[in-house]
Specification:
- By secondary structure, the protein is of the alpha+beta class.
- The chain has one domain: Pyruvoyl-Dependent Histidine Decarboxylase, Chain B (3-Layer(bba) Sandwich).
- Helices cover 20% and strands 47% of the residues.
C-alpha cells in the first residue's frame, strides 16, 4: 500500500470556498474524497503526492476545520503509525488550542491504537496545518490512499 500525507490552508468568501481552497492548497482539490476509517496495511510506504486525475475517486482520512470567526487559531492534525503487520491513522482538530497539545494528542492516540493491537511502530509521521482566521479560513491534513 502507498499513501501520501498532505496539508493545506486558505481563506475564501464562504466556508465551502475556504474548504475547497484549502483542499486545492493541499493538492487534492480536483478529486472526489471518500472518507475511510483509520487502517493501513503493514509496511505501508509514504510517498510524495503526484498530480491526481481530476474527478478521480480517492480514499482518504481527512482532518479539517473551518472558522468564520476572525482571530481564531485553527489546526488540523493527522498522525500515521506504520508497523510490519499494519498501520493506524488518527486525526484531530482544534480552535484556539495550543498546536503542540493537538500534535501530542494525535501521537498519543495513534500510539495507543498500535499498542492495543500489539504492533511495534516502525515509522511515525505527524502532519498539521494551522492558520489564524482573517475572515473565513479552513485547514486540512489528509492521508491519501494511492492506487498501486
Amino acid at each position: 500500500m502507498k499513501i501520501s500525507i498532505v496539508s493545506g490552508k486558505d481563506e475564501g468568501p464562504t466556508k465551502l470556498n475556504a474548504f475547497d481552497n484549502a483542499l486545492a492548497d493541499a493538492g487534492i482539490g480536483d478529486v472526489n474524497l471518500i472518507k475511510v476509517s483509520s487502517m493501513l496495511s503493514g509496511n505501508t510506504q509514504i510517498t510524495e503526492l503526484k498530480p491526481l486525475k481530476p474527478g478521480t475517486m480517492v480514499n482518504c482520512v481527512l482532518s479539517t476545520i473551518t472558522s468564520d470567526n476572525p482571530g481564531d487559531n485553527i489546526i488540523a492534525a493527522i498522525a500515521v503509525a506504520i508497523g510490519d503487520e499494519l498501520g493506524c491513522v488518527v486525526e484531530k482538530t482544534g480552535i484556539n488550542k495550543e498546536k503542540q497539545d493537538i500534535i501530542d494528542e494525535v501521537i498519543y492516540m495513534v500510539k495507543y491504537m498500535m499498542k492495543k493491537r500489539n504492533v511495534e511502530i516502525k515509522n511515525l509521521v505527524v502532519k498539521e496545518s494551522s492558520t489564524t482566521v482573517e475572515n473565513i479560513a479552513s485547514v486540512v491534513s489528509c492521508v491519501v490512499y494511492l492506487e498501486e
